[in-house]
């Protein structure tokens, strides 16, 4: 798994490549928590490079969503590949976390 982050104005964009599974979920969660703790309250996860996500990975997404909601922040994901989108849909995460087709669409909603 590889994580890269950048800012577009006051919106934190996090690009995730590879897999989020039992062996990488904690590292992913720590990276997202560090960004939130550093003051990022608008977070877009660009999952265009994400090939696989397990229940451990979904748990980290849920933790981030809850943390940001408690801080009146905003959270969205974008660029989901078919398999990852299917996991989000089947698990009900599509009703918890807004899903957009691309970074530009997600950023536009946050402005």
UniProtKB/TrEMBL annotation:
Residues 1-110 form the STAS domain. It comes from the Bacteria. InterPro entries: Anti-sigma_ant, STAS_dom, STAS_dom_sf. Gene3D superfamilies: STAS domain. GO terms for molecular function: anti-sigma factor antagonist activity. Pfam families: STAS (PF01740). CDD domains: STAS_anti-anti-sigma_factors (cd07043). PANTHER family: ANTI-SIGMA FACTOR ANTAGONIST TM_1081-RELATED (PTHR33495:SF2), ANTI-SIGMA FACTOR ANTAGONIST TM_1081-RELATED-RELATED (PTHR33495). Belongs to the anti-sigma-factor antagonist family. This is Anti-sigma factor antagonist. It comes from Oceanidesulfovibrio marinus.
């Amino acid at each position: 798994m590889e994580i890269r982050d950048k800012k577009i104005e006051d919106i934190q964009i996090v690009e995730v490549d590879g897999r989020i599974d039992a062996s990488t979920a904690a590292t992913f969660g720590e990276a997202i928590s560090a960004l939130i703790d550093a003051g990022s309250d608008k977070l877009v996860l660009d999952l265009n490079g994400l090939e696989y996500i397990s229940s451990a990975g979904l748990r980290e997404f849920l933790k981030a969503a809850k943390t940001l909601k408690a801080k009146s922040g905003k959270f969205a994901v974008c660029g989901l590949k078919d398999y990852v989108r299917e996991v989000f849909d089947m698990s009900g995460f599509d009703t918890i976390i807004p899903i957009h087709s691309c970074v530009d669409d997600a950023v536009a909603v946050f402005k």
